[in-house]
Amino acid sequence: MNNNNNIKPEYKKMSDSPYSPCLIEFDSDSESALDYLYQHTREIENILSSAGAVLVRGGGFNNYQAVEKVSDLFFLEALKYNGEHYPVAENTSVQRPVNYANAEFLLWHNENTFNHSFPAKAIFACELKADVGGQTPIADSREVLNNLDKEVREAFINKQVMYVRKYESHDFLGVGWKTIFNTDDKQTVERLCREKHMSFEWVDGDILITRAVRPAVIEHPVSGELSWINQVLHWHFHCLSPASQEDVKVMFEEERLYPRNCYFGDGSKIPNDYIDHIHAVYKQCQMQFDWQNGDLLLVDNVLKAHARNPYKGERKILVSFGDVITY
What we know:
Layout: E1 10-13, E2 22-25, H1 33-39, H2 41-51, E3 53-57, H3 64-74, E4 86-87, E5 95-96, E6 106-109, E7 117-128, E8 132-133, E9 138-140, H4 141-147, H5 150-159, E10 161-167, H6 177-180, H7 186-195, E11 199-203, E12 207-214, E13 217-219, E14 226-228, H8 232-235, H9 242-251, E15 260-264, H10 272-285, E16 286-287, E17 296-300, E18 304-308, E19 311-312, E20 316-326
Parallel strand pairs: 2-3
Antiparallel strand pairs: 1-2, 3-17, 4-5, 6-18, 7-17, 7-20, 8-19, 9-16, 9-18, 10-12, 10-15, 11-12, 13-14
GO molecular function: 2-oxoglutarate-dependent dioxygenase activity
Cofactor: Fe(2+)
Protein name: TauD/TfdA-like domain-containing protein
């Protein structure tokens, strides 16, 4: 790395919120952003553990090689495959986001927190911004928790969340169990389910249903702050559009055969009005920015949830996840 102590990018908060992400902005002509990040890694990590997200602008991080170098700085170990994201090239931890309809809003979530183990950190980088829309709204998990009604908050803290997922053997309305578990051997699938602290059930011979009970709220592993960290809005049936709900009901007579759903940890239903309230709180707490080509967003996956706005035109985002933690 070169010595670039003379480079002093601008640091500033991105909103008036006490949980505001930080913007580190370089001169648009600078070719030394990576060197600066290398020299100030500890300082930026401290900002990240407080602010929850750091947007690096003007550094030209619009290719997977540059993103991989940043992940080497900020991750002790990057994840190369998590079952639903696929690398952009061989022998790299940099991936593409899960495919999702351009015209739809992808609801807020902390990445992979329905699993027993999940990444503590994430990187999002803009290779090519959309013509219209395509922002990545972020919401602070501490602020969301603080703004939930006491009744809702305590119900989730006490009961936790049960994520229920149905897999066909092949890819259909989502990836099949042979894809997600990377095997066609049922005994291997069952062993992996046990390792991942999931119960499992085989239906009609070749359909797999898994159930996993996870916390809705955890303490941050460094600061000890309580964070609302779950994916109820990604999983709850009420979050589907009315048309999609009707389609699912027509396709599957039994609720247990829906592609996925979630309940309280004791198996009881999460009321729809709880879900509406959580959705409103996320919307109240979110902030967003317009991507610029070459932007890179460092995210603490416990402190910040992310979403994705609808968009028009081509949009290319690079992602990388790292530093696994376990419930």
